[in-house]
Write a structure and sequence with these properties.
- This protein is α/β, with parallel strands linked by helices.
- It folds into two domains: 138 residues, Rossmann fold (3-Layer(aba) Sandwich); 130 residues, NAD(P)-binding Rossmann-like Domain (Rossmann fold, 3-Layer(aba) Sandwich), CATH 3.40.50.
- The protein has a six-stranded mixed β-sheet.
- A hairpin with a 2-residue loop joins strand 5 and strand 6.
- The radius of gyration is 19 Å and the shape is globular.
- The two termini are 26 Å apart.
- Its EC number is 1.1.1.25.
Length: 277
């Protein structure tokens, strides 16, 4: 066992709380092995009150790179030596890596978010984003990069929704009237529907879906959430979160290793893992 451990020259991982739903260790470890790279990827459950301590440990070891997920994408910014212009614009960091001796913060979520929408080749004029966290920020920035003219954001905490709307120049909508928004695409950027305690929940009532709409769930585990099942039953085109997950992970992989991820292999790994969850 010790001999096998010693072949790992570089350690990567993920910080967040909770981490029971994450497929990142499964994907990245399979990819490192597939491509013959001496890396290992570990889950580092990090409650909010331990974030500063964990990042200090990352610097001391040092850990080669980290994925950052809920609820740390925004607060981790202040712990970086440098933050990319993309991450500054979004106001969230989902990736840490070393560059020129400093701990650099990046956001690869926007790349992963836009990729499947670009492949659809559909014109999107209006969008409703549900949620106001780090992934919602990436979604709004991505929609604006795609020249979506009307973007609305809704969150249970209206103050957070309004703050996000003011920051990005879009419209805040009260949570109670989100179903009244006329949108070409509705995006779930909340944890509702995620494997575990939220799995039986959806942020959008089934009766609000209309045939021809796009429904995009940024939750990837399970692949078919209640939100997506109800949207599909209503005649909507659905996009699951796996495409975004793979897109953002591929960019992380490139930043850490300098290599391009074998995305098709990664997809097969993820689909197999989802069946086993």
């Amino acid at each position: 066992m010790l001999k096998n451990f010693l072949v790992f020259e570089k350690i990567c991982g993920i910080i967040g709380h909770p981490l029971g739903h994450t497929m990142s260790p499964t994907l990245h470890n399979a990819m490192f092995q597939h491509m013959g790279l001496p890396f290992a990827y570990v889950a580092l459950p990090t409650p909010p009150d331990k974030l500063i301590e964990v990042v200090a440990a990352v610097r001391a070891l040092p850990v080669h790179g980290l994925s950052v997920t809920i609820p740390h994408k925004e607060p981790v910014i202040s712990l970086c030596d440098e933050v990319s212009l993309r991450a500054q614009r979004i106001g969230a960091v989902n990736t840490l890596y070393w560059r020129d001796g400093g701990l650099h913060g990046e956001n690869t979520d926007i790349i992963g978010f836009c990729a499947p929408l670009g492949e659809l080749g559909r014109s999107i004029r209006s969008a409703l984003v549900l949620g106001a966290g780090g992934v919602a920020r990436a979604a709004i920035a991505g929609l604006q990069d795609m020249d979506v003219a009307n973007v609305a954001v809704s969150n249970r905490d209206v103050t957070r929704a309004q703050g996000l709307a003011d920051e990005f120049g879009c419209t805040a909508v009260m949570w109670d009237v989100r179903g009244e928004v006329d949108a070409d695409i509705v995006i779930n950027a909340t944890p509702l529907g995620m494997k575990g305690e939220f799995e039986r929940n959806s942020p959008y009532d089934a009766s609000w879906f209309k045939s021809g709409m796009l429904a995009y769930d940024l939750v990837y585990n399970p692949q078919q959430t209640l939100f997506l099942r109800q949207a599909q039953a209503a005649g909507c085109t659905i996009v699951d979160g796996l495409a975004m997950f793979l897109g953002q992970a591929a960019e992380q992989f490139r930043l850490w290793t300098g290599r391009e991820m074998d995305v098709e292999f990664g997809r097969s790994v993820c689909l197999r893992a989802l069946r086993d969850f």
